Amino acid sequence: xxxxxxxxxxxxxxxxxxxxxxxxxxxxxxxxxxxxxxxxxxxxxxxxxxxxxxxxxxxxxxxxxxxxxxxxxxxxxxxxxxxxxxxxxxxxxxxxxxxxxxxxxxxxxxxxxxxxxxxxxxxxxxxxxxxxxxxxxxxxxxxxxxxxxxxxxxxxxxxxxxxxxxxxxxxxxxxxxxxxxxxxxxxxxxxxxxxxxxxxxxxxxxxxxxxxxxxxxxxxxxxxxxxxxxxxxxxxxxxxxxxxxxxxxxxxxxxxxxxxxxxxxxxxxxxxxxxxxxxxxxxxxxxxxxxxxxxxxxxxxxxxxxxxxxxxxxxxxxxxxxxxxxxxxxxxxxxxxxxxxxxxxxxxxxxxxxxxxxxxxxxxxxxxxxxxxxxxxxxxxx
Length: 382
Fold this sequence. Notes:
Oligomer: single chain
Structural class: alpha+beta
Strand order of the largest sheet: 1-2-11-10-7-12
Largest sheet: 6 strands, antiparallel, barrel
Distance between the termini: 113 Å
Radius of gyration: 27 Å
Number of strands: 13
């Protein structure tokens, strides 16, 4: 009996030590790049509510299915609800922020400039985008994510939003069947009067960049020649060694090297420390992180198919993945600094291109330095 009580006491003390160890590990002050915590986030943003409906549907007749589908079509007949009066359109000024769009990566394509230079571009298609909701700044600060920004940090809080931002606009893309989602998730789309969307994103805006819920967003939201930022998740490469993950040179190929050609080598820290410091470059999982690609130029816009041609092949994600596209936040590439491009007056349509403005646009538009193969390459003069 005495031995059992002693063993139970040891287990309890061990549980306390483990609990203290877990708490202490969560209070580290290193940066996220040097953190010992796995950095691959596989959960939805904290402002998302429970999305999928796990209930099993009972067998229903074909007549009931037709009745349910007819009710859904009548309920989500939009895009704007009639009882809502149109919101006032803001005017662009320096420092304005407006929402972006959700686009699907569909591939890469080369284009040629008028000086003969070739540029590889990534095609991003804006599919079925609508404004879902507007959240004022006061409501955001009361939320879970807003309260995290107010927590004291010894290393500084770089995620604090600017005082000029007055709220957040939620944008949804790709309509889907509301029967597959929960009642709470479908309730997010009540005010906008549109079908539930498969993907959501939230963009901070200023007071003049707010767009009324239910407004459709297309590729005409942007202007050829401007710069944009793309946010998405990188491709997963799996568990890789140090040569592929960190670019190590590896060991010599000959001169006595045996079974250590691609190993990391010595990772110790001397006799006094005798430990591996957090952030040591070692083998591990590569990819699967959410990153920003900033300062990508829009070379070409297809208004008929809502396709954007942006710079480079390094837009994150596989073909078919969804990314967020918005105006760039790089100071050197903002609207007010695009003097060479003659775009200092701001976007052509602000805060977005409405349906009555889309009729004036051509089927396709190029940036001024891009060669259009439809135009004649040789001009003859008498």
